[in-house]
Amino acid sequence: LFTVSESVGDSFIYELLNPAAVSILASTSVNFSWIVNLTNGFLDPGEQLECGLYNKSSLNANYSILFKANITNATFFNQTVTVTADELHWWFVNCTTPLTQSNPISGLSDTRIFEVIADAVYYRYGIGFFDKINFTLNTGDFQLAGDMSIDGGTMFVDSGTNMVGIGTVSPTSKLNVIGNTNITGYTNLGSDAPAIKLKKITGTTDNDSATSVIHDLTSSKILNVDIMVNVGASYFLQNYRTTSDPNHFTFYVTSTNIEIIDVQANVQNVGYKILITYEE
Fold first, then answer.
1. How far apart are CA 130 and CA 111, in angstroms?
2. For strand 195-204 and strand 271-279, is the pairing parallel, antiparallel, or unpaired?
3. What is the rounded distance in angstroms from the CA atom of residue 26 to the CA atom of residue 250?
4. CA 146 to chain centre
5. How much is the average pLDDT of 131-147?
6. What is the pLDDT of residues 7-59, one digit of tens each?
7. What are the chain's domains?
8. Residue 237: helix, strand or coil by DSSP?
9. Tens digit of pLDDT for each residue in 240-276?
10. d(CA 30, CA 178)
11. How does pLDDT run across 194-252, given as a tens digit for each residue?
């Protein structure tokens, strides 16, 4: 077992040949950097590479650790670790199998935890962020070449077809959504179409020939109004009726209200549904 302890502000470079296991023991309250090169550092299955955070439950210093190694079946943390430092950096280079942690790492809201893995065997190059990404520069572009997948099929960008899938990894249109959508802004459907929203109002008609409904919109922006009244169990009618029809009603729009008028006896004191289409 190889054990190293550091001093405040020190940096170390170690090269270990054929270790059975390595334990680098660190204080939790200093800033330091390690570079560890395990030239032939293969661990047998079930053995643990103990490095820095092993058996530690909290960190309150800035850690920067580089492992340039051939490491197989290595487990890094045997308990939950909370990072209270500003930053924690891990670099793993030339690892023959993915490295795992047996328990989660968590950080405070201002903590940045970085994991950079360059796997020369399987070519799985990538950066993993345990907490959040914080870009401090406001210039330049953030670019990704090739497809992009977020949590499997949660969101998928197909670079070959320039299509985006939400809930699917096989989008068939520019935006292919499997599931419900919720758009709080205006929607523009076509280059010559207005940006529109919909509003639904429900209530009960008055027990006479007229009912006033406040729409709370700018009347000049209203493009269309549809009204249906409930004249029976799951039986709704619109206003396309002759004046002699017992289910007849009509309406007009004012600056503040939708006025339902000429309401015949069958459609008095019944439920109504109003759907308003209005533009931006």
1. 10
2. antiparallel
3. 81
4. 20
5. 64
6. 434 444 444 443 434 444 443 333 444 444 343 333 333 333 434 333 344 44
7. 2-129 (no CATH), 148-177 (no CATH), 187-279 (2.60.40)
8. strand
9. 777 778 888 999 999 999 999 998 888 899 999 999 9
10. 49
11. 999 999 999 999 998 899 999 999 999 999 999 999 988 778 888 877 777 888 899 99
Strand order in 22-24's β-sheet? 2-4, 22-24, 50-51
CA dihedral 56, 59, 64, 69 (to 10 degrees): 10
Q: How far apart are CA 129 and CA 144, in angstroms?
A: 16
Which residue in 196, 200, 182 sits closest to 272, CA to CA?
200
Non-local (6+) Cβ contacts of 122 within 8 A are none
The Cα 12–Cα 4 span in angstroms is 10
Q: Which two tokens stand for residue 191?
A: 């280059």
Amino acid sitting at position 77: F
Sign for the CA dihedral angle at 34, 35, 38, 42 comes to: positive
**Look-up of token digits 């006033």:** 212
Q: How open is the CA angle 65-69-71, to the nearest 5 degrees?
A: 110
Among 83, 81, 79, smallest CA distance to 60 is for: 83
